[in-house]
Amino acid sequence: MGRRAKRRIPSIFGRVNLAFSRYFLVIPVCLQVIGCSNPDAGPTQHILVSTNPAGALCTLTRDGKTLGSVAETPGSIEISKSQSLLVITCSKPGFETAIYVDRGELDQTSVGNMIFRGSGLGQMVDAAGDNGRKYTKAPLIDLVPTSAKPSE
Amino acid sequence: MINIVQSFRIFVGSTLLATILSACGVVPAPSPVALKSPAHSIVVVSAIPKEISVGYEGAIAFGNESETINPGRWDLPDVAANAAKAALGDHFAVTTKSLATSPTDRNFNAVEFAGILKSQQATLGPADLYVVISPQYDTSQITQAAVGFHGFGISKRSNPFFTWPPIVHTFGIVALFDGADFKLIEQRNLQIDIEARAPLLEPQNHVGAEMISVGGVDRFVPVAPLSDAEWTGGWIKLTKDQKAEAQQKMTKLLDLSVRFTLEHLLETGKKP
């Protein structure tokens, strides 16, 4: 076969060569896809639970159901993502039981969502599932000594 | 130093905003809540994150800056708990509990918190009433001047024509739950006594103070201006003195607003 002639396709700017048209079409599509949802989002996430001081027993609950526990902080646990509040309760002898409530944040880490944040398109797509919210990856929970509890 | 052009823009913007706000109506002063049965014991749950928001909202989204930072030992949860105890302590048996929370972009949800109170009752202790203090994300019902701002933090707005002074704000809510069935009794925005707030509007000739004083909608809203009108957002751009001013004003706003709201809500401001 002889040398292939460059194909040309019609466009709003007239006839341009295929290579340029390809980029012209692909770049906006990529941005839109990135902006619509977080490609790194999955159904689960790891949470590293730490306390100050360390060595506490922490239990993770959501909607009244126990998801799991960390026998001795710091420790990691994998949980499913959800729109619901995550409650972490930590106890250690000599310290007040600490309650930590993670209300989750809208995941706006993707470049697309940041660029198109004003449009809300990405948030709408994410909100349709549970991928849009993420809990704090490594919460640090302060434990207050029983004797040091504020005046009550 | 604020140059003349910048000063003029701030002045014009503030005056216009104050005029608009004055015409929009007035947030009523807080009124007392009617309890079904007398309460004797109260557990105050201070559900305030250690982090605050710092933001700048410009005319276009690309100029916006928003970050959540831990300012260090500002002890805002303790400030709120102590203010609540001061407001209620003479009338009720009050215990306080700081409930650590993550920074969030979602509104306070009474149903969710009722579930937490119920499941954590053993830790929180029994009470006739539970009082939850929390930041509020959606501030559109609190103040039109603060649209775009949320929770506890430092914010500044501008557009191509006007620049509003930076403000410190403690947009939050107080929610009362029944200690028996954990149902929400009442939920109110944090409000502040305008006379008590007056010292926070210093310097008095600051245009931000004028804006807040004149703006009818903002009369009871816990906001106070920062001195440096040139600041364009970003925690790292604040000097040590500016951070100290922000801490002092935010701590005072939170203390005053929690006291004022609870004293009016449960009528403890009046001497028995």
Structure description:
The complex is a heterodimer of chains A (152) and B (272). With 152 residues, chain A is an alpha+beta fold. Chain A has a domain at 44-110 and 129-145: Immunoglobulin-like. In chain A, 21% of the residues lie in helices and 35% in strands. Chain A has 3 helices and 11 strands. Chain A has helices at residues 18-36, 111-115, 121-128; strands spanning 8-11, 14-17, 44-52, 57-62, 65-70, 75-80, 86-91, 98-102, 105-106, 133-134, 140-142. In chain A, strand 1 and strand 2 (14-17) form a beta hairpin. The N and C termini of chain A lie far apart (91 Å). Chain B is of the alpha/beta class and 272 residues long. Chain B has one domain (4-265). Chain B is 31% helix and 21% strand. Chain B contains 7 helices and 11 strands. Chain B has a 5-stranded mixed β-sheet with strand order 4-1-6-9-10, sandwiched between helices. In chain B, strands 3-2-7-8-11 form a 5-stranded mixed β-sheet. In chain B, a hairpin with a 5-residue loop joins strand 9 (172-178) and strand 10 (184-189). In chain B, helix 1 runs parallel beside helix 6 (207-214). The longest helix of chain B is centred in the C-terminal third of the chain and has 26 residues, at 240-265. The radius of gyration of chain B is 19 Å and the shape is elongated. The N and C termini of chain B lie far apart (51 Å). The A-B interface holds A 61, 63-64, 84-85, 87, 89, 97-106, 117-118, 135-136, 139, 141-142, 150-152 and B 47, 61, 78, 81-82, 85, 94-97, 99-106, 109, 112, 115-116, 119-120, 123-124.
